[in-house]
Structures are given as C-alpha cells and as structure tokens.
Amino acid sequence: MNDMKSFLTIIVGLTMLAGQSFSQPIYTTDSSLVSFFSATPIENIEAFNSASTSLLNVTKREITFRIPIAGFQFEKTLMQEHFNESYMESEKFPYATFNGKLSDTLEITKDTIYNVTATGMMNIHGHDRAESLSGLMVCHKGRATLICDFAVALRDYQIKVPKVVFANIAEVIEVKTYFEFKPYEKE
Length: 187
Description:
The protein contains two helices and ten strands, in the order αβββββαβββββ. It is of the alpha+beta class. It has one domain (24-183): Beta Barrel (Lipocalin). An eight-stranded antiparallel beta barrel has the order 1-3-4-6-7-8-9-10. The protein is elongated.
C-alpha cells in the first residue's frame, strides 16, 4: 500500500511539473504608445497612437503587435485627414501589424533588462515585408516594458505621396513603440 501511495505521489508531482514546463505564459498590452516622426526642411510631422495592442508568448518566443492606423492623432486635423485618406488609406488598410520571433528567451519573472531582436513579417498599407526589429525589454515584478524604435521607408510599403507635397514628407519615417505588458488573464 505504501508503494502505491509513493507511486501516486510521484505521478501527481510529475504531472504538476509537466504542466508548469509546458505552460505558455502569455502577456498582453496594459498600455501602449506608438509615435512617428517625419522630418523635412519644410515641415516636421508627428503623430501619436495609444490604441495599439501587443501579445507576447514567452515560451514560444513570439511577439505580435497591431496598430490601428486611424488611431494616430496629429496636431493639425487636416494632416490627420490626409494621412488617413490619401496616404495610408486607413479604411482599406486599417492596421499595421508585426508577427515575429524573438531571438532569445526571456524570463519576465526576473527583474532584468534584455536587448531583444524580433524577426518576422511587418504588414503596412497591405504589403508584407520581412523585418528585424531591435529594442529593450525591461522586466520588473512580473511585468515587462518593450521600447523599440525603427524606420519605415515609404517605398517599401508602396505608400504614395503626391508630388505637390513630396517635399513636406520624409521618405523614411521614424517610428517609436512603447508597450507595457501584463500577464494575460482569460475572462
């Protein structure tokens, strides 16, 4: 009888360990800020978006983010209208997305800072392009913050700028992302 109890105890223990080993800790965006900046001698254009979302699967080392194009807010209303209607066609292409694989394993439960790189597919304006994005992941008290800056060349995503305003918009746009992650909780 004691042998049977020991055997059952070992089986239960192994099952619990296996469940922990194969669990997939998922983190989701708690808050975000995505901005872009276009610098030209004629005019600087800047916009901010706090409606973006991201998911991080630590076990699979996968990250994805989705940025609603119409969520960008500009200082000038006319710029925002032109951005959505003429350049980004946000009704036709409502989101910019990235789906990538992290190069390294993260341990979000440890307070540490990682230099991270994710390689995957970026989709902007309905066009896919392989991209490698680098950033900083700050892990503290079971949460994580990702800061990532990258450049987007308009021609890479077939974003057309009318010749009449071509000098007002940079050919390469600087993008800054900031995502705060918390553990995902099913509702």
